[in-house]
Automatic annotation (TrEMBL):
<feature type="transmembrane region" description="Helical">
    <location>
        <begin position="60"/>
        <end position="79"/>
    </location>
</feature>
<keyword id="KW-0812">Transmembrane</keyword>
<feature type="transmembrane region" description="Helical">
    <location>
        <begin position="100"/>
        <end position="118"/>
    </location>
</feature>
<keyword id="KW-0472">Membrane</keyword>
<feature type="transmembrane region" description="Helical">
    <location>
        <begin position="124"/>
        <end position="149"/>
    </location>
</feature>
<protein>
    <submittedName>
        <fullName>Uncharacterized protein</fullName>
    </submittedName>
</protein>
<keyword id="KW-1133">Transmembrane helix</keyword>
Length: 184
């Protein structure tokens, strides 16, 4: 009887079966716990506000950077166009500053809509790069066109500039006879 009990304790088939079933149960339990953790993480990701998810945070930071780049670009464009506009004021023609700014604002609105709709970081980076390139190309093209048109108009028609008082005085001082004749 003792041998039988000893055999059962040491390595009986019943003991091995119980041990195996414990191992299986522990493995199944750990699998179930892992599955439960994964589902809770997924549910947490679904119930978490969009602004707290990592993709939304990176999209938000990219949106802030994009907005900063766009604001600086618009300010630079406005400065450039205002300087060019001052050069072209003598001809009373040329591209309006407001129409250019309206075009840039339209580009900004389209980019913001794309950033809001698409929340993938890679796409946002590509959109930012494309927008910066488009704005730079638009600025360069506008400046080149305005400068070329300005030069061609200046070469065709040289508008009469009203002389100032010093120029008039010096001109008539050198030619006193003509000055007296013109006064009479």
């Amino acid at each position: 009887m003792e041998d039988l009990h000893r055999g059962e304790k040491k390595g009986s088939s019943r003991n091995c079966t119980v041990r195996r079933s414990y191992k299986r149960a522990a493995f199944t339990l750990s699998q179930l716990e892992d599955e439960a953790r994964r589902k809770s993480k997924m549910a947490d990701g679904l119930t978490r506000p969009v602004s707290q998810s990592p993709a939304a945070k990176s999209t938000l930071s990219m949106g802030v950077i994009t907005s900063y780049v766009i604001v600086v670009g618009v300010q630079g464009l406005y400065y450039t166009v205002s300087k060019v506009r001052i050069i072209r004021e003598s001809n009373n023609s040329g591209i309006s500053t407001y129409s250019l700014l309206l075009f840039v604002v339209l580009i900004v609105v389209v980019v913001v809509i794309i950033i809001v709709i698409v929340e993938v970081v890679v796409v946002v980076v590509v959109v930012v790069v494309v927008v910066v390139v488009v704005v730079v190309v638009v600025v360069v093209v506008v400046v080149v066109v305005v400068v070329v048109v300005n030069k061609s108009e200046n070469s065709k028609t040289k508008s009469f500039k009203k002389p100032n008082d010093l120029q008039v005085y010096l001109y008539y001082w050198h030619d006193k006879k003509n000055f007296k004749n013109r006064l009479n």
